[in-house]
Design brief:
The chain is mainly α and 149 residues long. 60% of the residues lie in helices and 7% in strands.
Length: 149
């Protein structure tokens, strides 16, 4: 009977130790967060004090101008760029599609039909976009060939 009570007391003491350890961890993390916040506050107060003693340059207001008229995008890539097979398939497919353009899935299908991987298609689309040979409308999620300059 006394052994059972002693075991119960030990379990309770272990549980108390766990709770105390949890609270200590929580207090340490809270203290760390508070230290960081106080440090940030001090730095900001220093900046405010400096700003009060030093003139802060203010940007001059920009005079509004009429927005430029949007021009039809044209192909900006150099004509001497050598394209890979996947890129060539994509450009040809987009030129056949005309102004309707193609979705990314349709382009991937065209490249896959040419016996190449989806990765090749994705890399080619990225390269063509960077070279300025195609345009991607992210809202419509369609790709378009740009006319030569």
């Amino acid at each position: 009977m006394f052994n059972d009570l002693r075991s119960a007391v030990r379990r309770i003491e272990e549980e108390i130790d766990k709770v105390v350890e949890e609270q200590n961890r929580f207090l340490r993390s809270t203290a760390s967060r508070l230290a960081v916040l106080y440090l940030q506050k001090e730095r900001m107060e220093e900046l405010l004090a400096k700003a009060g003693t030093e003139p802060v340059p203010m940007p001059s207001p920009v005079t509004p101008t009429s927005p430029p008229t949007p021009a039809k995008p044209v192909r900006t890539g150099a004509p001497s760029v050598v394209l890979g097979r996947a890129a060539t398939v994509i450009v040809e497919a987009l030129e056949r599609a005309g102004e309707a353009g193609l979705s990314g899935t349709e382009l991937n299908d065209a490249v896959r039909d040419a016996k190449m991987s989806k990765d090749a298609s994705e890399k080619a689309k990225t390269r063509l976009k960077r070279l300025g040979l195609v345009r991607h409308d992210e809202l419509a999620r369609r790709w378009y060939a740009l006319p030569p300059a």
